[in-house]
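Margin note: ligand = HMH.
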Amino acid sequence: MIGVPVLSIAGSDPSGGAGIQADLKTISACGGYGMSVLTALTAQNTRGVSAVFVPPTEFLAQQLDAVLTDVPPAAIKIGMLGSATVIDTVREALFALEAAGVRPLVVLDPVMVATSGDRLLDADAEAALHRLMAHVDLVTPNAPELGVLAAGAEPTCTADLVTQARALAHRHHVWVLAKGGHLVDGLTAGGTVTDVLLSPQGDVQAVDHPFVETTNTHGTGCSLSSALATFAARGADWPAATRLAVDYLAHALAHADELGIGSGHGPVHHLAGLWDGEGVPSLGLASGWWAQLAARARASDATTVVRALASGSVEPELFQLYLGQDLAYLQDYAEHLDAASNAAADRGDVDGAAFWAASATVCREEEPELHTRLGAEVPEPDAVTRAYADHLASASAAGYPVLVAALLPCFSLYAEVGARLAPDLADDAAAEVRDWVTTYADPGFAAVAAEAMARLDELAEDADPATRERMRRAMAQSLEREIAFFDR
Ligand SMILES: Nc1ncnc2c1ncn2[C@@H]1O[C@H](COP(=O)(O)OP(=O)(O)OP(=O)(O)O)[C@@H](O)[C@H]1O
Ligand SMILES: Cc1ncc(CO)c(N)n1
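Resulting structure:
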């Protein structure tokens, strides 16, 4: 959900590159509504920290109370804490929230030292940090911080990161994203930085991203943890939120030198994507489901019709059977596209209504031209076609988001099959094969399929978990119907 409240509990960096300033920019860029509670004020710029002022903890508690009693955040990012008393005040606020039945997602960036080398956490505050961890879902230590928290030597390679992150994950039953930004010695442009994500059970996932040759890395840790909190608040699970956050930061880092702020370690370009008109990153939930179905989608290559198309010549009987049934199917499919258009209009989604209506027109007027050109006529629908129609009808009854999920494979699978077959189309391929393949390999068709997916991604993000699950299943079911449709 775009605009979910996300709270940063962190210190202020008046130069705007780290701390709550970085957090608010990042939360906004990633699609959240940013709020901030200040733990400490630093006098800081891109060259370093010259002073730290920690307001009385009573005032910290008042800030927390004011925000939390009015705007319950979907996620909280915790940054600079400064001292054990500050940590305990934050812990008590989280404990009180939980006692009241409110459990926001909590990301802890265990800030100890700034990029400039200045300490931001008292050395005696480590025990308090471990106590806080009971209320945390995911913690994002850099290499030196991980060494301190896991009570080991400072990690010097990815294998060290994994070992120590696993110990920390087990100890506190938390997700750990161990950052590799301090292990980049010797890397040059084109190299790869590896962060590692560990589940509370210790499962490892390497999260690779391109090394960016820049000295403008001030606040990378603050920005990453805020992006993580925001994507999780919008509904991504931790692995997906991690990938989205790392990609967001990679883009902000890649554009950091364009900003050119300050004479020391300057900030990353938090708003690079927004200013370039790319908008807020999509969670891509439905795209993720489709990606998980990729192996099934490839199974369509083994069907009778697709194998024949790939060979360049189709047996006329088989092709007429398939094309005829497809004509019958398209009539029914167009009606469901109309229903989707009406449902979008009912929700006030004018663009969506126009998109589905235009797709219905293509289904009724343009696409059947291919079929009739190839000699097909509308037959009685057979069992396979009827089963697909029944599935679409039941998806339609389950509501607009589930219907759109069911409509999706018809777009995506045909665009993918077209794109796969076109490059290998033999020069002597039969005319009807060429006609079919070029119709579905058309870049315009791919663009329409991509837009349908983008609309489904948006619906998935706004859906509750039960509806999401129904959407995912409706998509998978339609894919099975599509494969059966090709296998005549
Ligand atoms: N030069 C770089 N190129 C690409 N990614 C980088 C680079 N430097 C840091 N990162 C990434 O930035 C994120 C923050 O990592 P890092 O280890 O620098 O954290 P940090 O030390 O907590 O940051 P901060 O500078 O805010 O204290 C990680 O995802 C890391 O991989
Ligand atoms: C306020 C603040 N928080 C965090 C960091 C870590 O980069 C910093 N430099 N300043």
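The domain at 4-281 is CATH 3.40.1190.20 (UDP-N-acetylmuramoyl-L-alanine:D-glutamate ligase).
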